[in-house]
Design brief:
The chain is of the alpha+beta class and 94 residues long. It has helices at 14-31, 57-75; strands spanning 2-9, 35-44, 47-54, 84-89. It has a single domain (2-89), classed as Alpha-Beta Plaits (2-Layer Sandwich). Helix content is 39%, strand content 34%. It is globular, with a radius of gyration of 13 Å.
């Protein structure tokens, strides 16, 4: 399995960001081949983190691309700073 993690800082309205992600982005993630799970986390203090898990690297990379497009088209005013993005193979899980 592979995962992609995106950390957003300076989120201006976490509740609205969560609503838009839940209503729009979650469905996009479910369409990516190899989808396993998606999480959107409010870490507090204007920080939100997303984690996408896929069966293969291609799915994780596709999620990064779709996230960038979704943020640009729907969340730019709420997520004003570019995210820290990391992805890699899941080497342990529970």
């Amino acid at each position: 399995m592979y995962a992609a993690v995106r950390r957003y800082e300076g989120v201006t309205d976490p509740a609205e960001a969560a609503r838009l992600v839940n209503e729009g982005f979650v469905a996009l993630m479910r369409q990516v081949p190899g989808f396993v799970a998606y999480y959107w986390i409010d870490a507090g203090d204007g920080v939100m983190v997303s984690t996408s898990v896929f069966q293969d690297r291609a799915g994780a990379e596709e999620s990064i691309s779709r996230a960038a497009d979704f943020v640009r088209d729907n969340l730019a005013s709420l997520l004003p700073n570019p995210p820290q993005v990391m992805a890699g193979e899941v080497v342990a899980s529970a």
